[in-house]
Amino acid sequence: MLGGVRGAARDWLDRPMTSWHLILAVFALLLGFGLLMVLSASSIVSFKQGSGSAFATFESQAVYAVIGSVGFVFAARVSPRFIRGASFPAVLVSLFLLAAVLVIGKKINGARSWIGVGSATFQPSELAKVALLVWMAHVLAARRHTLRSLRSLLFPVLPVFVLMVALIMMQPDLGTTVSLCIVFFAVLWFAGAPMWIFGLLAAGGIAGVVYLSTSAGYRAARILAFLHPFDPAYQAWTYQVQQGWFGMGHGGLFGVGLGQSMVKWSWLPNADSDFIFAVIGEELGLIGTGLVLLLFGLLAYTGLRIARRSVEPWNKIVAAAATVWLVGQAAINIGYVVGLLPVTGIPLPMISAGGTSLVVTMLVFGLLANLARREPQAAAALYAQGPGRIGRFLGIDVQRPGDPRPPSRRTLRRRAAAARREAAQQERADRRHRRAEVRVAKAEAGTQAARRSREERAAAAARAARRPAPRRGASPVDPRRAGRPVADRGRPDEARTRRTAPPVEPGRRAATPDARRAPADPRRRAEGPDPRRRPDGTDRRPAGARTDPRRRPDAAATGGRRRGAPPELRRDGDRPSHFGDDGWSPAAQPTRDRRPSAGERRQPSTPDRRSARMRP
Length: 616
What we know:
One of its GO terms (molecular function) is lipid-linked peptidoglycan transporter activity. The protein folds into two domains: 11-401, no CATH class; 411-463. 60% of the residues lie in helices and 3% in strands. It has helices at 2-13, 18-41, 43-51, 56-77, 80-104, 124-142, 150-154, 157-169, 174-191, 195-215, 217-227, 235-251, 276-309, 313-338, 355-372, 376-385, 388-394, 409-466, 513-517, 522-526, 543-546, 609-614; strands at 106-108, 111-117, 120-122, 562-563, 591-592. The longest helix is centred in the last third of the chain and has 58 residues, at 409-466. The protein starts with a helix and ends with a helix.
């Protein structure tokens, strides 16, 4: 059974219009319950004030409820674009009224916070809360991409907030100042401000609270009475709190009954406004106070649900910040009634007696209802199924989802300016990134060059360690290039000067200049006698092999053509070779053979590649 109930509740919460239904239900329950408790808690005080009627306060509250209902319908129907456009004029009007109340305002309970309009009164500081909420959300939503900058985040929001706080504290009204601070910090939090901003503002706020608490004697006395509630020296300051405790203790679990409270008979000051929660606890008991807590908890869930399911940044910020404002104000009121916080005079939203507070709170509920029906799923459901009875009663217009109205020219200009600022900031960031990349690349290139240099030096050292020691007096010149000028070494063969090595005597090896200058290698003497010579010293090789083919006597008769060895000196199958058994051979050099006679038959041979390349 429990699983079925849980599944049904989950299915109902997944419906697209759940937020709309929840906010309307919470609004109606809080409004009806508040009017009922104001009627019960204010009857004795209204009769004793000389009006002759026990319903005077209730009638005034009902009139304000009607005005607030008009504000609720207006806020639920109007477009968010209109609210954002009217936010700055609302801030200017609020600042003007806060300054005017210091001159023409009425002084009630020691604070000049009300402006008289005929027999009614109006509190401008309550309007300042809503104006600051929608205007701050509008500014920070437009600058959501540049909130890391202190100037973009706090200017001009912080100066306006400080000016409002200064004007309110000149009345003086500490409770409204605390509520305004809740609105300010909530908007900053849900706009995505960095944490260090809250650290700075919290430090400044704590310093301001300490100063305000010690600057006025009655504020310091309230704080000391909160710290020592049972001290006889602070009996006058703790009397109101102690009477509230007595009323809630007298109510017990189920209460003494509606209208049967004893503390409202002039025992509890401000029983219909600041301490109405104590009257609820006495008349309805723990059940009644638990119902109040449940309603505000449901309000917190609904408001945050609307913020989470919204798409537009302004909708998210306003829904979440307004929810925190109302729930936080209720928590402070309940906290000082039960003795957890010092008394600040903040009313309980929708329940405490107070015309301006009720109208402003109903206006905020209408704004939440407006944002609830603009959730993407809710907008699609309204377009498909229609607004329903309540929507038709409230005059809700149905708009095609995903087809917003075209923005105004002013909005387009603002968007273009914001886009230009964002592009300039992105360009500066890209430039800084490129400079950083260049620095990193240079550092890496230097590191790699140093590594290559170390590796080359290590490789050269390793090669030098493996290379055998050169012979004394030897030259590293290639023996194949011996006899050529230094200027010709390293050039292509076609570009070299056609010079030949010096002639070699018959029976001796061709030697390079370096080899001629170098002494005999002692290792060769250790190898034994030369196999090319007989024991008597004569050469074993044929006479043709001992003759240098490069310097034949009849070289001039050959026409200067380069030839290999004469055919009569070649053996069958032999080919000219550049290198002999000992490495260097006279056949490696081009020769100028004589022109063969007509009776001689040329033997077929394969020309050497180098000799063929050297031929003209």
